[in-house]
Structure formats: C-alpha cells, structure tokens
Amino acid sequence: MVADKLIRIQTDSADHVIAQFKQRVAYNIYIGAVLLVLPLLAAQWLSSHWLMVVLLGLIGAFLLAIVVRGRERQLQLSTQIIFVILLAGSITYSIAINGMDGLFWAYPVLASIVFLLPARPAVIFGVGFAVLASLACYFSLPWPFAWRGILSLLALLAIVITLTVMLERMQQRMAQLIETDPLTGCFNRHRVITVLDHAIDAQQRQQQQAAMIMLDLDWFKPVNDKHGHLNGDRVLKQVARCLQQGLDDHATLFRVGGEEFMVVVPHLSPSQAEQLAQTLLQQIRQQPYKLDSGEIRMTASAGVASVVASDTWQHWLGRADRSLYQAKQAGRDRVVVAQQPTAEA
Questions:
Q1: Which candidate in 72, 168, 259, 344 is catalytic?
Q2: Measured over all CA atoms, what is the biggest interatomic distance in the chain, rounded to whole angstroms?
Q3: Domain that includes residue 111, residue range
Q4: For residues 252-279, average pLDDT
Q5: 158 and 37 belong to one structural domain
Q6: HSE-up of residue 310 (Cα within 13 Å, Cβ side)
Q7: Tell me: the pLDDT tens digits for 163-177?
Q8: Domain check: are 204 and 317 in the same one?
Q9: Do 68 and 158 share a domain, yes or no?
Q10: Residues contacting 162, CB < 8 A, separation 6+
Q11: Sheet containing 335-337, strands listed edge to edge, beginning at the edge strand earlier in sequence
Q12: How is residue 289 annotated by DSSP?
C-alpha cells in the first residue's frame, strides 16, 4: 500500500535533508565559537575592556546553552538571530576599541552568517554587519588602513551574498529533483506527506475542506508485457498530461507508484471530489494512447477520501487506499468514496 511506502521515506524529504545539513554545519560553528571565546575573554579581561568582557561572556553563555541542548535539537530562527546580533555587535565594538585586532575577526563572522541564517535574513544581517564594521573602521583606524579594511569587507560581503543566493537556488533545485517524478513531471512520494499535513492543518485550524483521489490504471501490466516498457512509459506520460488538463491550479498531482496516481485538492466537498474523480476517469477512458504500433484505450479505478479534523496523513491515505482497493474488487473503471469517520474516530 502507498501508506507503507511513505512511512519508509518520511524522514527523507528534501526540506528535512537540507535543514539537517544546515543544522549540523551551524552546530559545528557554535562548538568552534565556544573554543574561541574563552581565550578572547581572557585577553579582553587582561586589557581591562570590561564591556567587551561582558559581551563575550554573554556570547559564551549563549553558545554553551546551544551546545548543551545537543546537535539534534532544532534551533529556532529567533535564537540564531539573537546570536548573530550579539556576535556582530561584539565584533563592531572590538574594531572600535582594538582597531585592526578587532577587524581580523569580522571576516569569519561575516562568512559564517550564510550558514547560520536562511537566505533572506543572511543577506539582511550580512549587509547590516558589513556597514557597522565599515563605520567602525572609518572612525577607529588610520585612513590608509581603514579604506583597505572597508574594501575587503565589501568584497567579502559580495562573495557572501553571491554564495547565499547560489545555495538557496541549489537547495530549491535539489528539492525539485528529489520531489519530482522524472518520467511524468508529477510530484512523487517525497512531497506527499508535506501536502497532506498542510491540508490536515488547514482543516483543523480553519475547517477547510480537502479531498484525496487515488487513481490506478486498470490492466496496465499487460500493456508492459505486450507492448514493452518503453510504450508503457509513454502511456504513463500521456495519462499524467490527461490528468493535469483536468485539474485546476489548486490541485496537486502525484505519481505514487508504477501506474498509481494521487490528486489532493483543497476547498472540495466530498460530493465535489466524487464528481471530479468521475470526470478524471472519463477523461482517461476517452483518451487514445499512442504507442509505436498504434493506439490503445485505458481505464482507471479511483478511491476518494475527504479530510476530517481527527485525521493523520496515514489515516486519511489509508481510507483512500482502501476505497481504491474496493473499486478494483468491484470490477474496475469506477469510483468508490470512503465513508467519513466521526470526529472522535
């Protein structure tokens, strides 16, 4: 069943993989920062820079709290922003009182922002820190050193912004590749759980209706056996196009198995979902499918289930799966609608 397949990939979605990678990088940065803060704190203490001592002490305590929480604990964006603000403020003040010795630390801090924050906040805080550090250079360093420091900061800022934008686009492309079926262009199973959870959340928060339609092509295996898998793939691509033409922009189409498709549509009542399923089956039935040796006709069976507030994605998907099985058992080329469970179920 589709639900069993989804359970195996639940932790492998593109968003999860990317978030986990960035979390590990950020955690390693925090550990490295803890090791650096202690000698810096001692140096500022010996120099009697008491405000700097306080700032470094706050940063050290903040870092220790993060490290103690553990590598696998998801950090809130607000926590990361607070850390970046403390770090940027400390380095800016260090440039003002220590001159070049403080400027040296501006470069690793500016470079690390891209890994500590998402793309948009990283650009905003990166620009803000570069401006503050440049002003500190201007007012605290002799001009021959100040303009070189400012230019080098701006050059690094340009590199950081470029890397941030590139990483964001790479992540989006990676997510698209992971979540898209290469044969049909539909979403695949990696995207299903995210969409179902969003629909369930909308039902629980706003009583927004949503429906799931599971479709399975009838007698598809004989097509592969008789005409070959390349022709079978041609049929699947034509079926996907046929389904997409029958759906509006709010619907999400997935290929979840060999010849099995899923449609999730928000703002759809159970009766409207049944009508849509009937329409999709009629379109599949009426479409001629071109093969190397001619044309064939196909039919499909469908199971329909509407979301309820008590649902999990497993329960919702299970009802649609069972309805599809009943449609197959009842003779194929038909729609079976799942019985709505009670809110307490």
A1: 259
A2: 88
A3: 2-179
A4: 94
A5: yes
A6: 6
A7: 888 888 888 888 788
A8: yes
A9: yes
A10: none
A11: 252-255, 260-266, 210-217, 300-306, 335-337
A12: E
